[in-house]
Design brief:
- The chain is of the alpha/beta class.
- It folds into four domains: about 150 residues, Rossmann fold (3-Layer(aba) Sandwich); about 140 residues, Alpha-Beta Complex (Hect, E3 ligase catalytic domain fold), CATH 3.90.1750; about 100 residues, no CATH class; about 80 residues.
- Helices cover about 50% and strands about 15% of the residues.
- The chain contains 17 helices and 18 strands.
- The strands form six sheets. The protein has a five-stranded mixed beta sheet, with helices on both faces.
- Helix 5 packs antiparallel against helix 6, helix 8 crosses helix 10 and helix 15 runs antiparallel to helix 16.
- It is flat and about 110 Å long.
- The termini are far apart.
Length: about 525
């Protein structure tokens, strides 16, 4: 503690009161003091001493382990400008809980600027010789320990909630809202949940993440951040990019298990109780709990998307990049690294060991891509033939088609109903003309036309049902033909959709002597050629 000022009793003290309360303090039963209580208490103290109160500085909701606080910085500015020469807090912990930084201000900053500091309840006064002053470093250490303990308790509490399947985030993820009845429970946001489902379906249909982002922007659908700003007026985010979707945003949604009804939390953690910057937590340490809330997509759909994301490399729109059929599935047999693709001056594509290409730590393992694609397709064709009876498969496909209900009568029923509606229209018109001529009274016209009107409405509804039935029949015919074509295509296998391969093949290994090893997902045998 710095030296006693002999003439301090004659000094005119211009006081700056400083009050602080963190969110942790608000939740702690032992700390009942509010910002207003601190200010009232210290103001009365200053008045009783006869000092000049210049300004009041307060930081509500700021931790004591970080001195980067708005009003604390404003107080330092007032000290720099010579406006105050006495700082008063209720106790030392209000100034700060980090013993290193608190010691800096007590031992260095305040003495350098000739500023007196008083912590009323702790009996600390830097212009007095007292035991309390000598104990201030120890108080700082205790305050620091308190902050550490509170931080640990908060993290433990959050961890317990996460393991119970309770949502502990500040804002619900896109597609969900916090339940009004329970803030730790997620409920589906019906306004945007269909958009999430659309994204998963589009990806499985072959669209890349960039193309999905472009589609959402073309549809003028607000991005998650922009949507959050719309439903939470106080939420601000500088990264909104005017509401535009990005590939990164789409990817984060497609990879988030929350949409399959799971909670994956503890993905990030602060570096320490003093350094609030977040760092990524390894995936194996995430807290994942299944079945916590209503899912937007099925677990099967979510898992399929994850498998595809490991291997797919869909080119950007208008890009000249080649869409390689086997990308992500190819591995070097010898070093285990992935295979990559390279193009020769003749325009031919080869796959080679990525470890060799980048570090020359292996050999080329080069294989002409077209030959490799043909080999894999041929191998798949033979494998399927070994498992599937061609005639039996076609027979079952035809049986499935033949069992579908027929809709031959729909067309005739539709014609009869539409014909009768036209007859009713003519009858009602004739009745109206008779009313105008005075042949029918107003009441007779109403009585007669009501029966026709009721029949017309019934027939109109029937026509709508028949049209839907007819359309369904057409769609069923299309589905039947598709089923037959799929069965035929599976047997012939002249080509295969890129999205299907990851569901059939675990990995393909290429050896230096050009042998190909295909590991299938549906059984364990390894074939080579």
């Amino acid at each position: 503690m710095y030296a006693l000022k002999d003439n301090y009793r004659e000094t005119i003290f211009n006081v700056g009161i400083y009050a602080r309360l963190s969110k942790e303090d608000e939740q702690n039963i032992e700390v009942s003091e509010s910002i207003s209580n601190q200010i009232d208490y210290l103001t009365q103290y200053v008045v009783e001493q006869g000092w000049n109160l210049v300004d009041v500085f307060s930081d509500d909701g700021y931790t004591g382990t970080n001195f980067n606080r708005p009003d604390f910085n404003r107080m330092l500015q007032a000290i720099e400008e010579g406006k105050i020469n006495l700082v008063i807090t209720k106790d030392l912990s209000r100034l700060g809980r980090d013993y290193i930084d608190t010691g800096h201000y007590l031992e260095r900053y305040f003495p350098l600027h000739n500023v007196r500091y008083i912590a009323v309840n702790d009996g600390i006064d830097t212009y007095e010789n007292s035991t309390s002053n000598e104990m201030s470093p120890f108080r700082s250490v205790f305050n620091d320990y308190y902050a550490r303990d509170i931080s640990k308790k908060v993290r433990t509490s959050m961890g317990v909630k996460a393991r119970r399947g309770q949502f502990i985030g500040s804002h619900a993820p896109y597609g969900y809202l916090k339940s009004p009845a329970d803030k730790n429970k997620l409920v589906v946001d019906r306004n945007v949940a269909p958009i999430v489902l659309q994204m998963f379906e589009s990806y499985l249909a072959g669209d890349g993440i960039t193309r999905i982002a472009h589609t959402l922007n073309d549809q003028e659908i607000p991005s998650p951040v922009f949507y959050k700003m719309q439903i939470y007026p106080n939420y601000k985010n500088a990264k909104s990019k005017f509401g535009k979707w990005t590939a990164e945003g789409v990817k984060s949604i497609l990879q988030n298990p929350v949409y399959a009804g799971c909670l994956a939390q503890h993905k990030q953690a602060v570096i320490s109780y003093k350094v609030k910057k977040l760092k990524a937590v390894p995936k194996e340490k995430w807290i994942i709990v299944e079945g916590c809330h209503e899912a937007i997509v099925s677990k099967e759909m979510f898992d399929q998307v994850q498998d595809l994301m490991k291997v797919r490399n869909v080119p950007y729109p208008n890009s000249s990049k080649k869409d390689h059929l086997l990308v992500g599935l190819l591995f070097c047999k010898d070093c285990g690294h992935r295979m990559t693709f390279t193009k020769t001056q003749k325009g031919e594509w080869y796959c080679i060991c990525a470890n060799y290409k980048r570090f020359k730590s292996c050999t080329r393992h080069s294989y002409l891509e077209s030959d490799l694609d043909n080999y894999v397709l041929d191998h798949l064709r033979k494998t399927i033939a070994a498992f599937v009876d061609r005639e039996e498969l076609l027979k079952k496909a035809r049986e499935a088609v033949s069992k579908k209900p027929k809709v031959d009568r729909t067309e005739q029923e539709l014609k009869d109903a539409e014909k009768r509606i036209e007859e009713i229209k003519r009858a009602i018109k004739s009745l109206y003309e008779d009313k105008l001529k005075g042949i029918l009274s107003e009441q007779d016209f109403i009585d007669l036309s009501q029966g026709y009107t009721k029949e017309r409405d019934t027939l109109t509804a029937k026509v709508e049902r028949l049209k839907e039935k007819e359309l369904a029949g057409q769609q069923q015919e299309d589905a039947d033909q598709k089923l037959l074509r799929l069965a035929q295509g599976l047997l012939e296998l002249t080509s295969i959709p890129k999205t299907v391969l990851p569901q059939l093949i675990e990995r393909i290994e290429v050896s230096e002597d050009k042998k190909i090893y295909i590991h299938y997902k549906f059984r364990e045998p390894v074939f080579h050629g």
